[in-house]
Amino acid sequence: MSVRGESDNATVQGNEPRVVAITPQLLASAQPSVPAAALPSEIVSYRPETYRIQPGDTLLVTVWDHPELTTPAGSQQQAVTNGRLVQPDGSFFYPYAGKINVTGMSIEQLRSTLANRLSKYLRDPQLDVNVVGYGSRVSVQGAFADTTPQEITTVPLTLAQAIGKARIDPEQADLSGFVLTRDQRNYPIDLDALNRDGKTAPTIYLKPGDQLFLPFNDRKQVYVIGEVMRPQAITFKTTDLSLTQALGRSGGLNPVTSKGSAVYVIRGIEDLQNAQTTVYHLNAKSPAAFALGSRFPLRAGDVVWVGPAGVTRWNRFLSQLLPLSGLINNAAAAQYNLDRAGN
Q1: Residue 304 lies in a domain
Q2: Backbone angles phi, psi at 330, to 5 degrees
Q3: Which phi and psi (to 5°) does residue 58 adopt?
Q4: Which structural domain, as residue segments, surrounds residue 120?
Q5: What is the arithmetic mean of pLDDT over 202-231?
Q6: Cβ atoms within 10 A of the Cβ of 40, count?
Q7: Which subcellular locations apply to this protein (predicted)?
Q8: Are 234 and 224 in contact (CB under 8 A)?
């Protein structure tokens, strides 16, 4: 459908926008802005078992009264120097015991196996086994200050501990977009929703091979344009951003040029020419309107427009939005190309 303006002959191709007033009834019937954070049961219920030896671990075997077996590199060396590495295929060699496949063994199981084999050469061997280097890792990627892989040790590692050690970048992180990848399956976890309203997130234990990814919020923006004090793109890191918050960050409505009854939220601008766009209208003349605005959640990609134009002047309005939608899409494509070039 085309919409023709009153002051020009330009025609904007697209569907007639659907205009919805922001009212208490609309907000009451809408879904909660922050849905209850539901975690998959298999993630919450997972509890680490006794530590299992993994390829890449370094094991220190202490055979009492036999320093030639315990510290072949010398007693002055660090423990890891005298340790022995579990090979990628899971094999572990120890003198007189030979090669043993230790992957998945507990420390006690390996100690018992070594004692049994060494008993052929030593009388009642007494020995200890300790892990002095760990091959199991949890990878950390995204908007963290420290993305160094973290070890899974004999002490269970929780998600909260791993995030605390990695240190979230508070300016660039998207807290609602966190993803835990386990066994080739992605589990989205909204960190913001989990810790809202005084709630404490449940304890989530990590396992070897887990991947933690916290996305950057550079693509999570709303655009505030028109008759506001500081038109801008607003990046947000939480689950949602209210209309009132967006207007507040932009300095509020321009008291000289703005029209309080002309506050709109345009949703679906990415495909403005091909699909119907929904426009939410807030009459901000009344102070009570900002209470409604504080309960209206914005989504990434929304455009907040404030101006004197009425709903009937859509051609002029849409002709302003079409270049903006192209700019948004071009910026996203450019960022995508930069990301690919950097990989």
Answers
A1: yes
A2: -65, -40
A3: -110, 125
A4: 58-133
A5: 92
A6: 14
A7: Cell outer membrane
A8: yes
Residue 222 pLDDT grade (very low, low, confident, very high; cuts 50, 70, 90):
very high
**Closest Cα to residue 241, out of 286, 295, 291?**
295
In this prediction the pTM is 0.71
Q: Which pair of tokens denotes residue 135?
A: 């091959």
Rounded Cα–Cα distance for residues 15 and 11 (Å): 12
Task: Indicate the helix (H) or strand (E) that contains 4.
Answer: strand 2-4
**Token output for 77:** 């060396």
Please count the other Cβ atoms lying within 10 Å of the Cβ belonging to residue 310.
11
In the chain, the number of structural domains is 3
What sign does the CA torsion over 86, 88, 93, 99 have? Answer: positive
End-to-end CA distance of the chain: 43
Q: What is the CATH number of the domain that holds 62?
A: 3.30.1950.10
The pair of three-digit structure tokens given for residue 307, joined into one six-digit string: 């101006």
| Phi, psi dihedrals of residue 156, rounded to the nearest 5° | -55, 140
Rounded mean pLDDT of 279-290?
82
Distance CA 20, CA 49 (A): 54
Instruction: Give the chain's mean pLDDT.
Output: 81
* CA gap 205, 258 in Å, rounded: 52
